[in-house]
C-alpha cells in the first residue's frame, strides 16, 4: 500500500518529461500517475502518514487529502487541456495552501509541546510529511497555473503549427462557431489520419 505513492510520483515525473519531449505515451502516464495520486490522497492520506486509527486527526487528514486531490486533478486537467482546469486549479491551489499552513502550524505546535517535556520520548510528527506533500503539490499546481493555457498548448503542439494557429484563433474568438468547428475538424482529421 505504501508503494503506491512513490510509483505514482514516478509515473507523473516520467509523464511530464515525455510530455516535454512530445511523446504520445505522456498523457497516459500523467492520467495514471496524477489520477492515482489524487484518489490515494483523497482516501488513503492517513495511511501514508502513519496516523494511529484512534486519532481525532483522521478527519482533518481526510479534508487535507481532498484538498490535495483537487489540486492534482486540476493539474491533470490543465496538462490535457480538458474543460474546467482553471477552476479546479484555483480551488486546488487555495486548498493546498490551507493544508500547507495547517501542517506547518500543527508541526510547530507539536515541536513546542515536546520541548516542555524533554524527558519523554518524542511523538511521531506526522505533520511534517504532510507539509512536504502539500508543498510539492502546491508547487506543481502553481507552476501549471501561472503558465498561460495558450502558451502551454503552443508548446506541447509545437510540431503542428496549423493546429496551434486554429487553437489560438478559437481562444481569441470564443463566440466564433466557425473557428471552433475548424479546430474540431482539424483535430478529428488528425486523429483519424495521424500522418497528416
Question: How is this structure best described in words?
Answer:
By secondary structure, the protein is mainly alpha-helical. The protein folds into 2 domains: 4-147, no CATH class; 148-196, no CATH class. The protein contains 8 helices and no strands. The longest helix has 31 residues, at 85-115. The model has no long low-confidence stretch (mean pLDDT 85).
Based on CA atoms alone, the radius of gyration comes out at 21 Å
Helix content: over 70%
Task: Compute the number of strand runs.
Answer: 0
Question: Which percent band covers the strand fraction?
Answer: under 5%
Q: Mean of residue pLDDT? A: 85
Shape: elongated
Poorly predicted tracts of residues: none
From the N-terminal CA to the C-terminal CA, the straight-line distance is: 44 Å
Number of structurally distinct domains:
2
List the total number of helices. 8
Indicate the structural class.
mainly alpha
Topology pattern, helix = H, strand = E: HHHHHHHH
The profile of the biggest β sheet is: none
Topology:
Elements (H helix, E strand, L loop, with lengths): L3 H17 L5 H23 L8 H23 L5 H31 L11 H20 L2 H8 L4 H12 L4 H16 L4
Helix pairs in contact: 1-2, 2-3, 3-4, 3-5, 4-5, 7-8
Summarize the structure.
This protein has helices at residues 4-20, 26-48, 57-79, 85-115, 127-146, 149-156, 161-172, 177-192. It is mainly alpha-helical and 196 residues long. The chain folds into 2 domains: 4-147, no CATH class; 148-196, no CATH class.
List keywords for this structure.
mainly alpha
Amino acid at each position: 500500500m505504501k508503494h503506491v505513492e512513490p510509483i505514482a510520483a514516478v509515473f507523473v515525473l516520467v509523464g511530464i518529461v515525455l510530455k516535454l519531449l512530445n511523446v504520445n505515451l505522456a498523457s497516459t502516464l500523467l492520467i495514471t500517475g496524477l489520477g492515482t495520486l489524487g484518489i490515494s490522497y483523497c482516501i488513503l492520506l492517513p495511511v501514508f502518514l502513519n496516523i494511529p486509527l484512534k486519532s481525532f486527526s483522521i478527519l482533518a487528514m481526510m479534508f487535507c487529502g481532498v484538498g490535495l486531490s483537487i489540486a492534482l486533478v486540476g493539474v491533470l486537467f490543465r496538462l490535457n487541456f480538458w474543460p474546467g482546469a482553471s477552476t479546479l486549479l484555483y480551488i486546488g491551489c487555495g486548498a493546498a495552501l490551507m493544508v500547507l499552513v495547517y501542517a506547518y502550524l500543527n508541526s510547530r505546535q507539536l515541536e513546542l509541546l515536546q520541548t516542555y517535556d524533554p524527558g519523554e520520548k518524542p511523538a511521531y510528527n506526522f505533520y511534517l510529511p504532510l507539509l512536504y506533500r502539500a508543498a510539492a503539490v502546491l508547487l506543481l499546481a502553481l507552476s501549471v497555473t501561472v503558465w498561460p493555457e495558450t502558451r502551454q498548448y503552443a508548446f506541447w503542439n509545437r510540431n503542428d503549427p496549423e493546429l496551434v494557429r486554429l487553437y489560438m484563433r478559437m481562444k481569441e474568438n470564443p463566440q466564433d462557431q466557425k473557428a471552433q468547428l475548424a479546430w474540431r475538424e482539424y483535430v478529428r482529421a488528425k486523429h483519424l489520419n495521424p500522418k497528416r
